[in-house]
Design goal:
3 domains, mainly alpha, about 150 residues, 8 helices, about 0% strand
């Protein structure tokens, strides 16, 4: 197919000049092949752009997140860098809540995150349960507190 006809079809396509120039450099068998190339280019341009895996890996490597969090974030797809940064911030907050980050510890007044003090009754009940599971005699004083 001659270059003039290809250029005419491309100019009617409403594609950007850069896209028209890229398609004009290709060889086409007939008019149908040119129209198919135009449709594919339009579909490619209209499809949502996704952040490349290499860019995702680079941004995640710059964080101090645990490797499990990095792996989870790397599996997702992101439209752009800002969407990934938002996900990273959300993951940081999530990890902080899991680890109790920012809470004072070992200062003689609080308990470690997730470790609440057992009451005496809870302690006695747990002890009696251990004894029963192992077929041992449970002392009367333990069972009366339960």
């Amino acid at each position: 197919m001659d270059k003039e006809k290809i250029q005419e079809l491309l100019s009617e396509s409403e594609l950007s000049p850069e896209a028209q120039e890229r398609l004009a450099g290709e060889e086409y068998e007939d008019e149908g092949a040119v129209k198919e190339a135009i449709l594919q280019e339009k579909a490619r341009l209209e499809a949502p752009q996704k952040l490349e895996e290499a860019d995702i890996a680079k941004l995640l490597s710059e964080t101090n997140l645990p490797s499990a969090s990095k792996k989870r974030l790397a599996r997702a797809e992101y439209e752009d860098e800002s969407a990934l940064r938002e996900s990273i911030l959300a993951e940081v907050e999530y990890v902080k809540t899991l680890t109790g980050s920012g809470s004072p510890f070992a200062q003689g007044g609080g308990t470690a995150p997730g470790e609440e003090q057992m009451s005496e009754a809870d302690y006695d009940a747990a002890y009696a349960d251990i004894l029963r599971r192992h077929g041992l005699h449970v002392p009367q004083e333990v069972t009366t507190n339960v």
